[in-house]
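Researcher: Quick test of sequence recovery. Tokens follow.
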């Protein structure tokens, strides 16, 4: 997903869930900031690099793909963008190595998305925003894994798009970093095929380009993990469910619903706006920000400022942990720690080792000492 959904659409969902305008702004800012909190950014504000929630292309190119490097990549991308659906999925006749990669395939309504939302309960608004980013991405990024792997993330080159008029056409892919996708001609940017199993070019949905990130896309393709059997991706339907599931999740986080349940969607909340939302989701455009922003401002009657990565930098320099970014950093460490531990306890080492400090005491990255201290202080 992109800024249009993580920022503007998340604001709409938060407002419909009962958050105030100010709370909705803080929440959607946090959701979008997951796509901005790189090591490069964290270094620029003298913050811990272990709180990184994403990586730039330059950072990925500089990352070694040895065991340690791959575990580092997996901790970031599996925790925040490709949350595994089933860490115990059965893969008949598969080797352990393949099975561990297969079990990192992202998808909605898994146990980890419930863990993610429940982890944010009674926490800061930044934690709620992170949870909404992770939840939304389980819908957009399903069937891909947040670890570099050819045998899982590769696709056949044959992608068929279903057009609004009922016809279909073959999609063409090019590799031109920085170039825009051409919707009219059906030409999209993607990563090139690389035979190395652990090349960063085989991370996530790179071979599918930005198709998973466009709400209007309906297409057919053949993923490697499913033995190159064709499957259909219906983004308008998935994005609608993501939007309504966020509303349900945020009502739980606010305390107006007793529990967050998977496969539960608050369709009732969007009934008065059903036609408007569907129109935005199905409109063929590279960026739906203007449409979501207009809808958001109609909902609240308030102006929605453009997203600004540097908005809270000065405050962080003055207040550190007691600032907006300070709370975001703590929340990101908590989310990454939880997911890494779940992967590790499933006997899968692709995200590295994880220590249960409650049983064995602290042993790990020093920046997580603050996370442990804060958890003890607030009794979480």
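Model:
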């Amino acid at each position: 997903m992109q800024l249009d959904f993580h920022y503007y659409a998340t604001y709409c969902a938060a407002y419909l869930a009962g958050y105030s305008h100010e709370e909705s702004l803080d929440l959607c800012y946090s959701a979008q900031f997951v796509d901005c909190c790189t090591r490069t950014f964290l270094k620029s504000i003298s913050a811990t690099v272990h709180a990184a929630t994403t990586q730039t292309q330059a950072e990925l190119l500089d990352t070694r793909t040895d065991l340690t490097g791959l575990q580092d990549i997996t901790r970031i991308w599996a925790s925040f963008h490709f949350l595994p659906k089933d860490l115990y999925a059965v893969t008949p006749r598969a080797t352990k190595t393949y099975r561990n990669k297969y079990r990192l395939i992202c998808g909605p309504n898994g146990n980890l998305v419930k863990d993610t939302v429940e982890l944010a309960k009674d926490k800061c608004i930044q934690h709620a925003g992170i949870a909404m980013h992770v939840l939304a991405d389980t819908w957009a990024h399903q069937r891909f894994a947040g670890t570099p792997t050819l045998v899982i993330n590769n696709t056949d080159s044959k992608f068929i798009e279903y057009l609004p008029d009922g016809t279909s056409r073959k999609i063409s892919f090019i590799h031109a970093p920085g170039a825009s996708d051409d919707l009219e001609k059906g030409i999209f940017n993607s990563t090139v095929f690389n035979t190395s199993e652990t090349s960063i070019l085989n991370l996530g949905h790179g071979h599918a380009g930005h198709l998973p990130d466009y709400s209007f896309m309906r297409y057919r393709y053949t993923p490697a993990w499913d033995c190159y059997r064709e499957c259909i991706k219906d983004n308008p339907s998935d994005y609608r469910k993501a939007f309504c599931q966020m509303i349900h999740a945020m009502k739980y986080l606010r305390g107006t619903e007793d529990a967050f349940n998977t496969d539960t969607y608050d369709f009732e909340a969007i009934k008065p706006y059903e036609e408007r939302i569907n129109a935005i989701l199905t409109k063929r455009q590279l960026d739906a920000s203007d449409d979501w922003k207009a809808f958001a401002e109609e909902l609240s009657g308030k102006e929605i400022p453009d997203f600004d990565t540097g908005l809270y930098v000065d405050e962080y320099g003055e207040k550190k942990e007691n600032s907006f970014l300070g709370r975001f950093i703590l929340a990101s460490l908590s989310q990454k720690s939880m997911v890494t531990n779940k992967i590790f306890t499933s006997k899968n080492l692709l995200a590295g080792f994880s220590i249960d400090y409650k049983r064995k005491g602290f042993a790990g990255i020093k920046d997580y000492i603050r996370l442990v201290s804060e958890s003890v202080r607030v009794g979480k």
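Residues 151-234 form one domain.
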